[in-house]
Write a structure and sequence with these properties.
alpha/beta; five-stranded parallel beta sheet; 5 strands
């Protein structure tokens, strides 16, 4: 039997640079919600499956030992921080929603979407970002002890290649099947768009595993343009009806819509390449009039 939970898990599902960090931080500023002190806990989610070549994990890989370890880590955080809700955001989970649901069939899920053409240039910056020791140490702190040597080696090789002249990291964000092959004939910007597309398509394919009252879909653009009402809707969905309007206003005080439409600053050639990749997926997500934007 899987470990009993003593809280409500709230799992944010979204591709990298779709507003997952922003949404997590906003929710966790409301009393009763909390999360880890690092951006993501992918090594925890990959416990027992660390050698899989991509971040896709099938539900069958959520073996009892795997389930109990992950659920135990959530319970531990709840106890340490005395939480009502444990909020988690690991972007690679957008490639394996069915696996995550197998681990947490009782969780509440927030699926966040964003225009992939704005995601790609933002992700490109992260692929070429300099090394941040504090950021890396926080991630390693949450790594399963038995897996620590593997991830120290993996993160170290990634940064060493960059230090010795590589123009980008060897990996960043969710690892989808074929990403290495795409780098051979696509630009970094195009790979970022394909990375977003792979995550979105995987999530949309798996979301029918969730009960209708178990998930809510959020559009980044709508949230940043009307954050107070959008946050209230999310809190109502989570059953947190006691938050005061002043607390909600404070939680979203730093939310900004300045990055909406940022892809329009790119060259005409870059915009055309992004449109070609992103348009079918955007239309499937009900982003209207994509071609004319």
């Amino acid at each position: 039997m899987p470990k009993e939970l003593n809280h409500t898990p709230v799992i944010i599902i979204g591709a990298g640079r779709t507003g997952t960090n922003m949404l997590r931080d906003v929710i966790c500023s409301i009393d009763g919600f909390g999360t880890w002190d690092c951006d993501e806990i992918n090594p925890v989610w990959r416990y027992g499956n660390r050698f899989k070549p991509t971040d896709i994990l099938s539900p069958e890989l959520a073996r009892p030992k795997v389930k109990n370890y992950i659920r135990g880590r959530f319970n531990q955080l709840k106890k340490v921080q005395n939480l009502e809700y444990v909020v988690e955001k690991t972007c690679a989970n957008s490639l394996r929603l069915a696996f995550v649901h197998e681990v947490f069939p009782e969780a509440k899920y927030i699926l966040i979407n964003r225009d992939g053409r704005d995601v790609a240039p933002s992700a490109k910056i992260r692929w070429t970002a300099p090394f941040e020791l504090n950021y890396t140490l926080k991630k390693l702190k949450q790594t399963p002890l038995r897996d620590l040597p593997y991830y120290i080696w993996k993160f170290g090789i990634n940064r060493l290649k960059q230090a010795f002249g590589a123009d980008r990291l060897s990996f960043w964000g969710p690892v989808y099947p074929g990403i290495d092959a795409d780098f051979k004939n696509k630009s970094l910007l195009e790979v970022c768009a394909l990375q977003w597309q792979a995550c979105v398509q995987a999530t949309q394919a798996d979301k029918d595993k969730l009960a209708a009252d178990q998930f809510i879909e959020v559009k980044y653009e709508r949230f940043v343009n009307n954050p107070q009402d959008e946050l209230k809707t999310i809190l109502d969905f989570l059953g947190k009806n006691g938050a005061k309007s002043e607390e909600i206003a404070k939680a979203v005080a730093r939310v900004s819509n300045r990055s909406v439409g940022s892809h329009k600053k790119l060259s005409a050639e870059e915009q055309e390449a992004l449109n070609e990749i992103c348009e079918p997926t955007l239309l499937a997500l009900n982003y209207s009039n994509v071609s004319s934007q």
